[in-house]
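Re: beginner question about structure tokens

> Can someone show what the tokenized structure looks like for a real chain? I only ever see the sequence side.

Sure, here's an example I had lying around. Input first:
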Amino acid sequence: MRFESWVGMFLLAPLAALPFDGHAWEPKPKIDLSRVHASFWGDTSYEYSGWAVSDDGDLNGDGYDDIVIGAPLNSRSHSNAGQIYLFFGRPTGFRMDLDCANADASFVGEETGDWAGSALDIAGDVNGDGYDDLVIGARYNSDAHSYNSGQVYLVLGKSSGWTSGADLSAASASFLGEEAYDEAGYSVSGAGDVNNDGYDDFVIGARYSDDFTTNAGQAYLILGKSSGWSMNTDLSSASASFRGEGMWDEAGYSVSGAGDVNRDGYDDFLVGAPWNGEAHGIAGQVYLILGRASGWGMDVSLGLSSATFWGENGGDAAGYSVGGVGDIDADGYDDILIGAPYNDDAHASAGQAYLILGRPSLPATTDLSAADGSFLGEVASDNAGQNVAGAGDVNGDGYDDFLIGAPFNDDAHSNAGQVYLVLGSATGWAMNRDLSTAECSFLGENSGDMIGYGYYGRQLGGGGDVNGDGHADVLIGSMWNSEAHANAGQTWLFMPFAAPPAPRGLAATLAPTMKYINLTWDAAASWNAPITGYRVYRSTDGTHYTDVAFRGASDRTYSDSNLTYGRTYHYIVITVDGNGDESFATSSVSLVCDRDTDSDGIGDLADWDDDGDGVVDGSDAFPLNSAEWLDTDLDGTGNNADTDDDNDGVPDASDARPLDPINGLWDDVRFVNATLRSVQTTVNGVQALLSVMNANLTTLSGSLDAVNASLTRTLRDLNATLRTDISGATSTLRADIDTVWDLLSQVSDDLDGMNASLSKDLSDVESRLAADIALLSAALDAVNASLQGELAAMDADIAAFRQMMKENLTTVYGRLDRQDANQSRDMARIEAILDGMNDTSLAGMKNLLDELRTRTDLLDANLSSKVLEFRDTTMQRFQNISTKMATMDSMNSLSTEVKYVQGQARDIRKEQESTGKKVGDLAPPAWGAMVIIIIVLVLAILLLLGSRKKGEAAQVVEMEPPRQAPPTHPPPPPPMPPMRPLPPPEGGKFEP
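And the corresponding structure tokens:
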């Protein structure tokens, strides 16, 4: 941190007006996380610490916000039961690479595979005891039901009694998922005080709840209270719940407090449903639920939320992450941020985050294309917006700031990820701002760190003040980091106003013979970042300081030679570390630049006789010159060197009294008298000149009086002339105006007549059009009735054909049976004939075969005839239906055109009535087109009536509404898989 950023705030009053730029932190464009102020390593391999983090509350009430880190696959208590680490805030901050085994307290999951710590948040003070409280999600806990119903634990804050490895079965309270596979606790968040009763509240997401439909999801609200908390409370007893609108919405995938968005005194909260497809396929939707004093209910549809926000495009997954970001524009309304990591507006899956500014009221539905601002991922597949979070006021400018994670960004290393810090401001928000323009960002340390990852938990924290310096700090987790152990994870803490300690033992000494002030100091105390050097500032007034030197870490001296004797100089020295941060505290010293002229060991400022000539300085005309002490004539030259000490014009060698200037005074008097006489002569001449000038002025005054009288007469004559001309012009103008007014009256009367005529014509046209439309409608009804008749006849034909075929088949079956009997008889006869084979028997066999062939041909011809008859009848039916459908289409087209003309006529009437325009200016109706339409309409009706069979009466058949098959909706696609699948840890399950 630059010295300029804090010196006016932290130095004592004499140093308060340093000429720097206030005390706001200066953001750096890209900060490598290896150079921040502190980091926390996971304790064991594959525990994935940093999965979820939080730092925005004070759990032990010591005035410093605390750090909570989730490691859901830690196996300290049971395999993959999970562990949560707690570090209490402190004024000295933390060092880099601190092992989580050194946490101040920790909590372990109850059962194998619970994944406790996969979601967590410091939720505010839910019981009103003055200590903030902690909410922990264990999404795969199965205490309530056979599998993955989930459980959420509440740990109430306290001043002491924290322990390491505390089992969550001893938590202050817990909440069980309603059904198996609900995964209650997939997301959790503090919600602020939504009912304004003085107790903070929190929200629990159960993304796979099926209460409404398959995987619609549900979010539960738990209202704070002073007492009555208990373990194993079923979420069916929650204060309120909000269910997803549709199948596979997964409402509750993300939840977050939103602050007071509409400034009504009640805090609000957000629920994300990233797979909702109401606007577009998997565009996602986010619901804002406004706080209120009462009226909360269970199983309320999120469709009834106060405001909803739709993703711009299919596949965006808006609502993947949501966050309240405080008041970023300082207008008194809290604001919200929505992540859509798969948005393609900038590049394929580059991602986008949308900003919604608070206001007194919001629309019921808002497409995110109409957001107040948005931020685009830099390159394809960055997935910007997978994690979003408020950061508090990081730079101390009075505007809250926020964070956007892009886990697959490669700016530092492949998939190292990048987290962007966007600073708040009163104005300047716009859509489609590229995140490369963010004021500050943080780069992952190693390939595959994927900082800002959001598929499983909230890995960004902000708004807490861990070291109590009055400024918000930033917390960033990476569950993939393997710096300490394979996938042990790491969490980084950035404290923008953290500073190294000041140097010690600053001293200043004077070198009188060299006109130098020498500074020396001792090294600063140890710091969690390497000390790179010391910066020296100097002031001559104790208020305005100038940077005069920088010294390396091992060079702790400075000699200042640009000095003026007798002036006091003020110095301060500060420490600079490897991050470029400078110490808040300083070492300061002041010293007067003095000298010792006579080298007697006493500085001149304290010495009574600086030059040691025996004459005290008060009586010594030359206190620093031991060869001189007196200057009689005060000409700057001491008497020892002056040849005329009294300056009377008489050299000392010839002056009887060299120290008495009286002898030279008479010459001075004579010179003065001569000068006075010369001056008197000059004065007399000036007086004569003044007399002449006075006479000239008298003459000039008379001339000016004459000119003034002449001008007065001229102006009076000009005024009379102008009055006469103006009077005549006014009369002429009034006459012209009267004439124009008469003309306008006549024009108005003409227009009134023309408008009345046009109104009548339009009324006639509208009446005729209405009648034509009624006639066309009746014709369409007739065509419809005729079609229904044809269809009914076709149904009857089909039924008759089916009956006929059934009868024919029955007949065929009977004939075939008889044929079989005949064939059996014939075969017997044939066998008998074969037994007595002769010419006579051969002729009999031939006759039998001919008879069989004849019967078979007759049966075949009969069946063919029936099929051809049905085909011809059916084709005729279809031809009739096609003709009538074509006629109906033509009439529908005519009806549309007629209605268009009718609408045009209405528009003309409205234009006439509202504007009173001239008839000639109105668009003429298409009279010719209207006449043609009417003629064609009549011809179509006649054609329709003539198409009916001659002598056949039109039958009007009451048409039954067509039966439609119930709509089939294909199930929505399953949730989008993570971009990088999480590998299972050795020896344990990863994802059920």
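Each token stands for a local structural state, so reading them left to right follows the chain. The radius of gyration is 51 Å.
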